[in-house]
Amino acid sequence: MDWVSALYPWIKALHLIAVIAWMAGMLYLPRLFVYHAGVPTGSPQSETFKVMERRLLKGIINPAMIAVFVLGALLLWIAPIDWSSGWIWLKLVCVGGLGALHGNFAKWQKDFAADRNSRPARTFRLANELPMVLAIVIVIMVIVKPF
């Protein structure tokens, strides 16, 4: 266990890097959906958005989310956590919410790829705000630990 504890700062750093990559993608993908929803199906622009969305999801967002969960689980295993504190539970609920939102974004990406999107751009504009709201709560819980 000592060697794992010695790796704690590295695991934490890699976790934070993965969080930044995941959040960057989670903030950008719904913005692409906003633009994609505004172009005609089958147009060259639509086809370009399909490629951009797929590459962002498969190349950045999915691997980053996996790294966040694996490294986060390692941090929970290594670091002493007071499980009676409310902040850790709210943080984990918000991380779960980000994971669920990620799954929803992946579904929307598949809908666009199959030319089945039926949602207006406004839906994606609203969805674009959710990752940041969750990130704000998560950061406050981790840094301030208000309860």
Give a verbal description of the structure.
It contains six helices and no strands. The chain has 147 residues and is mainly alpha-helical. The chain has one domain (2-143). It has helices at residues 2-6, 8-37, 44-78, 86-113, 121-127, 130-143.
Gyration radius, rounded: 18 Å
The helix/strand order is HHHHHH
In this structure, how is the largest beta sheet organized?
A: none
Content-based structural category: mainly alpha
End-to-end distance: 29 Å
Find the count of extended strands (DSSP E, 2+ residues): 0
Which range does the strand content fall in? under 5%
Note the total helix count. 6
User: How many domains make up the 3D coordinates?
Assistant: 1
What spatial form do the alpha-carbon principal axes imply?
Answer: elongated
Q: Which percent range fits the helix content?
A: over 70%
Question: What is the residue-averaged pLDDT?
Answer: 96
Which stretches are poorly predicted, pLDDT < 50 over at least 5 residues? none
Keywords:
mainly alpha; 6 helices; 0% strand
Write the layout of secondary structure elements.
Layout: H1 2-6, H2 8-37, H3 44-78, H4 86-113, H5 121-127, H6 130-143
Helix pairs in contact: 2-3, 2-4, 2-5, 3-4, 4-6
Give a concise summary.
It is built from six helices and no strands. With 147 residues, it is mainly alpha-helical. The chain has one domain.
